[in-house]
Amino acid sequence: MKQFIDNIFSMFYPRLCVGCGNALRQNEELLCLPCLLHLPETHFHQQHDQVLRDVFAGRVPVREVASLLYYNKGSIVQHILHQLKYKGEKEIGRYLGSYYGRQLAKEPRFRSVDCILPIPLHSRKLRKRGYNQSEWIAMGLSEGMGISYLTDVLVRTQFTETQTKKSRFNRWENVKEVFGVQHPEKIRYKHVLVCDDVLTTGATMEAAIQHLVGIEGVTVSVVTLATATH
Ligand SMILES: [Zn+2]
Predict the structure, then answer these.
(1) What CATH number is given to the structural domain containing 179?
(2) Rounded to the nearest whole angstrom, what is the distance from the C-alpha of residue 140 to the centroid of ligand 1?
(3) CB count, 10 Å around CB of 91?
(4) 86-108: per-residue pLDDT in tens?
(5) Does 10 reside within a domain?
(6) Is 145 left (phi over 0), alpha (psi -120 to 50) or beta?
(7) Which of 83, 98, 103, 220 has its CA 20 to 30 A from that of 194?
(8) Ligand 1 centre distance from Cα of residue 16 (Å)
(9) How far is the CA of 21 from the centre of ligand 1 (A)?
(10) Does residue 173 carry a pLDDT above 50?
(11) Residue 125, pLDDT score
């Protein structure tokens, strides 16, 4: 009976593939089989990948850097990430995070990771979006790797530039958010994995990692769902 109702329901409200927008079959979850089979995986986690590590060279010390997918303009990956960030499809972050987490768990280079830290979202964006996509990726990685993720360590902090002579209306333009660390004791002497949706210039990552490497004994690695560098 439930099956019957499900079938009727999906006739009117078909679940759509997050990659291509086609209707999903009954046994498909978020991505249709063709999209799943054609995901442009980098397999970077299986090698000590210098290309990605070079993004951070001379900027901040990182141990490992890995990305699940290649990011190209107009590609299915761009579409998936757009759905993840702007269309409420947070489950795809968890799904791909878990998929990658299971692969990373098999790699000796990632076995020493103690915990996962999602890049926190700008508070204004968080209010608008209602969720942090990086947190959903962290949730998936956590499930796949069997280690916990912490959302109260790496945080956004606000500081306001001089308020004098600023009107009530443009005041907010002078509020900048930067990263900060709370509860440093939770990551002391640990290997932390910072995760985000896409790696481009590495500027956001760098800003966050700067705060982490200042903590005693912390080693940082980076994982993203996609990379624009390749
Ligand atoms: Zn599809």
Answers:
(1) 3.40.50
(2) 20
(3) 16
(4) 999 999 999 999 999 999 999 99
(5) no
(6) alpha
(7) 83
(8) 8
(9) 6
(10) no
(11) 84
In a domain, 188, yes or no: yes
Say if CB 133 and CB 90 are below 8 A apart: yes
Separation of CA 19 and ligand 1 centre (Å): 5
Determine the distance separating the centroid of ligand 1 and the alpha carbon of 18, expressed in angstroms: 6
Ion ligand 1: residues, CB < 5 A: 17, 19-20, 32, 35
Q: Residue count of the chain, please give it.
A: 230
Tell how far the Cα of 119 is from the centroid of ligand 1, in angstroms: 28
Find residue 13's DSSP bridge partners. none
Distance CA 52, CA 37 (A): 24
Paired tokens of 58: 């001379």
Q: How far is the CA of 125 from the centre of ligand 1 (A)?
A: 28
How many Å lie between the centroid of ligand 1 and the Cα of residue 33? 7
Among 47-56, 65-74, 93-102, 221-230, the minimum mean pLDDT is found in 47-56
Q: pLDDT (tens digit, 9 = 90+) per residue, 69-90?
A: 999 988 999 999 999 999 999 9
Q: Is residue 13 part of a domain?
A: no
Q: How many domains does the chain have?
A: 1
Confidence of residue 229 (pLDDT cuts 50, 70, 90): confident
Ligand 1: distance of its center to the CA of 45 in Å?
25
Range of the domain at 168: 40-227
Under the banding of pLDDT at 50, 70 and 90, the label for residue 155 is: very high
Cα 170 to chain centroid distance, Å, stands at 32
Q: Is residue 20 domain-resident?
A: no
8 Å CB contact between 211 and 183: no
